[in-house]
Structures are given as C-alpha cells and as structure tokens.
From TrEMBL, chain A:
Residues 2-107 form the 2Fe-2S ferredoxin-type domain. Keywords: 2Fe-2S, Iron, Iron-sulfur, Metal-binding. The keyword Iron applies. One of its GO terms (biological process) is P450-containing electron transport chain. This is 2Fe-2S ferredoxin. The keyword Iron-sulfur applies. GO terms for molecular function: 2 iron, 2 sulfur cluster binding; electron transfer activity; metal ion binding. Pfam families: Fer2 (PF00111). Belongs to the adrenodoxin/putidaredoxin family. One of its GO terms (cellular component) is cytosol. InterPro entries: 2Fe-2S_ferredoxin-like_sf, 2Fe-2S_ferredoxin-type, Adrenodoxin-like, Beta-grasp_dom_sf. It comes from Rhodopila globiformis.
TrEMBL record, chain B:
This is Ferredoxin reductase. The keyword Oxidoreductase applies. The lineage of its organism: Bacteria, Pseudomonadati, Pseudomonadota, Alphaproteobacteria, Acetobacterales. The keyword Protein biosynthesis does not apply. InterPro entries: FAD-oxidoreductase/Apoptosis (IPR050446), FAD/NAD-bd_sf (IPR036188), FAD/NAD-binding_dom (IPR023753), FAD/NAD-linked_Rdtase_dimer_sf (IPR016156), Reductase_C (IPR028202).
Amino acid sequence: MPSITYVEHNGTEHVVEVPVGKSVMQGAVENNIPGIDADCGGECACATCHVYVDAAWLDKTGLPPVGSQEASMLSFAAVTQPDSRLSCQIKVTEALDGLVVRMPEGQH
Amino acid sequence: MSQDSRHVVIAGAGHAGGSAAAMLRQLGWQGAITLVGEEPIPPYQRPPLSKAWLKGEATTESLLLRPAHFYPDAGIDLRPGTRVTAIDRAAKAVTLSDGAALSYDFLILALGARARRLPLPGRDLGRVLELRTVADADQLKAVLHPDARLAVIGGGYIGLEAAASARALGAEVVVIERESRVLARVAGPILSNFFQDYHRGQGVAIETDAQVIELDAADGTVAGVRLGDGRVIPCDATLIGVGVVANEALARDAGLGCDNGIIVDLAARTDDPAIFAVGDCTNRPLPLYGRMARLESVPNALEQARQAASQICGKPPPAPEVPWFWSDQYDLRLQIAGLPFDATETVVRGDIPGAKFALFHLAADGTVRAVEAVNASTEFMGGRRIIARGKRLSRRRIEDMSVSMQELAA
Ligand SMILES: Cc1cc2nc3c(=O)[nH]c(=O)nc-3n(C[C@H](O)[C@H](O)[C@H](O)COP(=O)(O)OP(=O)(O)OC[C@H]3O[C@@H](n4cnc5c(N)ncnc54)[C@H](O)[C@@H]3O)c2cc1C
Ligand code: FES
C-alpha cells in the first residue's frame, strides 16, 4: 500500500498507508490527522483540505494536474503557494508511494 | 489515555457529534469519550443522500464520516442504536434507552433535527416519504425506477436535489410549493427563478402557490396529491420536504434555554457550563451579522464541533467563520457564502442564462452580506473573504467582469 507522509504546520509528521483509489484527503481523515478539515467531504467545494505538495513531487507523473474547479477553489484558500493543492483531488496510486504533503497554518 | 479520568459524553452521532469526538482526540483530549447515537450505523454524511446515494453512485463506506474501526482505534466508545433519554444536570449524568446511566464531566448535545411533519390527511399512507436518514433515502431509492411518478411537496434544497436525482433515474417529477417560488425561505428571487427555469428545462413540473389539501389513496398507498384548486396530481410516491425541526426536547426537559434550537454562545456552550450543543439542534450567535440564528448545514455543524472541542480541551477558540452552504443539482454547483440579513440590493455578476454567475447581496451601505454562486467557485471563495472583512463594493465594480475577483477582494 502506498505510504503518504503528512506534515502538520508545527512539524509533526504522520506516515500512514493509504489504499490505492482513496484520496490524500481521505488518508488524513481516516487516520484523524489534524490539519486537514475537509468540511465538504471531498466534493471540491470547501478548500479546507488544502496542502502543499513537496517540491520533489510537483513534476512527477502520477500527480494529477490541477483541475479548473480545484484552481477556482484554491484562488482564495488561506495562505496559498505555487505548490498548493486540494488533497481531496489527489487520488492515491502506486506511483505516489512516498508522497509528502505539508499542511498550511490554518484551513479557515 | 488512562491518566485523565474525565469523561465527555456526546449525545447524537451525526455529522456534528461524530466530528466533535474526532476533534477532541485531534486536540489531545486524553479522557474517555462516549458517543451515543440513535441510528444503527456510525456517523455518516447526509449531503450525498439526496445526491450521489439516491443515484446509486455512493457506497456505505463512502457515506461514513470515518471507517467503523476508527472509533475503537481512537478510544471512542461508540454506542449505535442507543438514545439518550434524560439528563440529570445535578448529578452530571445521562440515562440511555438501554437502561444504562453515564456520568459526564462534559456533555455535548449533537441531536440534529428531524423532518417537519405536516398535519396532512393521508400522511401515513404507504410511499409517503421523507428524507433525513439513510433509511429514508433507501425507501425513496426503492420507488425511483424509470417512469415512476414522484410528487415532491416542498421546493427547498432537499426537495429540489431529490427531484434532480429522480430525473437522472428517469422518474417523472412534480414539485409542489406553497410559496410563489421555490427556495423562498433560503434564497433570493433571482436564484429561485433560475432554479425553477432550470428544473423545468430538465422536465420537472413545478406548481407554485399550491396548497396541498390531502393525499389520495389506492390500496393503502398514496395515489395522488389533492390541491386547493381541486386538481389532483397523480403519483406513485410522495416525498415531503418542508423543512426541519430542531431536536431540543432533551435540553428543554433539563431546563436549558431553547428558542427554535438550544441556545449556545460562541464556544457552543449552553447556559450550563458543563453542557455544549452543536449542529442543527442549536440557535447560535453570528458575530458577523450581530444576531442569533439556527443554521442547517455541514459547515455550521463542523464549526461548532470545533468550538466545543477547543473549549473542552482548553485551546484558543477558532476564529468565527463566514457561514456557507452548497447544493448540487444536475450539472449545477451552487455555493452560498454568508447570509442575506439586512441586504437591500442584489447585483448580478456573470451570465445567468449561461448558468455561470454570482449574486451579490449588499446592505444599504454597500457591505457585502451574501454571495450566491452558481458554477462560479472563484466568486464564492472571493465572496467569503469579502464578507469576512466586511468590505463594501459598488454595483458597477461587481458587475464589471473585467475587474477580477482578486481585485474585488483586495
Ligand atoms: C438529504 C440531505 C441533504 C443535505 N445536503 C446538504 C448539503 O449539500 N450541504 C450542507 O451543508 N448540508 C446539507 N444537509 C444538512 C446537513 O446534513 C446537516 O446540517 C447536518 O447533518 C447536521 O449535523 P448534526 O450532527 O447537527 O445533525 P444530524 O446529522 O441530524 O445528527 C443528529 C443525530 O443525533 C441522533 N439523535 C437525535 N436525538 C438523539 C438522542 N436523544 N439520543 C441519541 N441520538 C440522538 C439522530 O438520530 C442523528 O443521527 C443535508 C441534509 C439532508 C437531510
Ligand atoms: S474536501 Fe472540500 S475541497 Fe477538498
């Protein structure tokens, strides 16, 4: 099972295995990792599942491109950066084994 | 988790109660947590019930807030199929429907709301349905085969979402609304008209200004909806979606202040400092709007769950949020930021016939109070920021699509 590393804003790391087909957001919620709120449950409607994708992963194949709905939602999310993504829009595949995502300071 | 002998009991295992339990653990609560819920399954999301679930596009697993094993893993004692029947505030204990008693240090009431029952002749016939729980949704799903005729009483969000899903399944749908427009209670007239036209374009018949007198029967099952003007709308099933009523009796019986919901402050505290209330069952302050209101939305349930969990764990209170809501119908994504209290003017940004627009509701001084966005998530997100900052905008700038949302929100 692919392993994903979630880094809280305070530096705390959580390394968990997330089944292929689930989203990076679900991996955090199902393991109760603080820092990803996911208020809309993965509908790309809330932007409270915002993460920064570790630079090493940004141009790897396997990371789905930013969709237009995701881009609109990110446009005003709290503290966005060029490496911002909505974690509910990243489906876990074998190719994402080892992915590292970092949490912003807040989701609201 | 054994050092802390304190106990949080959560009454109601829905979106708010289930989330409060998880947030307590996220914030480091070391004491015991008992989550008591009347429904037979772990906490789940209701929004898909009228959308993906009805259309057969969701699974029980995808509906659950967290997988069933999460609760034992996190040291949360989930008691499904169990009701809290009474609160003894002096003894700090609750009684459960299975006869057990639980003492608490903190009690969180997350009792939700129930579908409003109309005193309508024929209400108890077969195939007269409501839509609040997964059990309700399954009954509705069972009657929604192609060519089935569904009469929806009430043109609110749940009725309209169910109508859209029923159309996707090939059923014929008539929406019957007492007011002169659908969504009358929750949206402005421009949005109501847009949704009305869109539903009609999808083959839904909409009867407004229609009074329902009774439900006609054939063999104990509903066969038609009789209207005040004498007409009968024939149908194979009826969905009644005329709003919800807060489940506040448990709190009222315990002497807690209630007024269309359990009254709470910004830390989700009731007037008993050991008792909190969160979600659809509360009447809460809205600091941005300087008033109290009862909100029925997932974001509200989660915001209050965060408030209660933070207070119980001795953490700083979360910053107040701009209330928001979403609804999906056909290929339309509606997102609403804020509430149109005190709004005197509505400004359209975008293209209504093209189904990509936002309605900005302004107070007399130009302060943006609410933004209703259809397939316009940038306007929704920008609107949230503008409302949070109490910004004033002019009609001319909002209407001007050459002024970007970034500029409007700056
Ligand atoms: C079909 C449908 C679609 C919706 N769509 C959207 C949407 O798109 N967006 C959105 O933001 N919101 C939507 N909502 C609203 C949203 O689901 C609610 O606001 C949310 O569920 C509120 O959570 P809650 O925990 O306060 O209440 P609930 O989810 O109702 O949970 C309360 C729980 O407490 C239980 N309970 C009650 N009394 C007791 C007792 N005495 N003892 C033990 N348990 C008890 C109830 O059985 C229930 O399981 C929708 C609602 C429905 C029904
Ligand atoms: S969970 Fe809401 S946008 Fe990702």
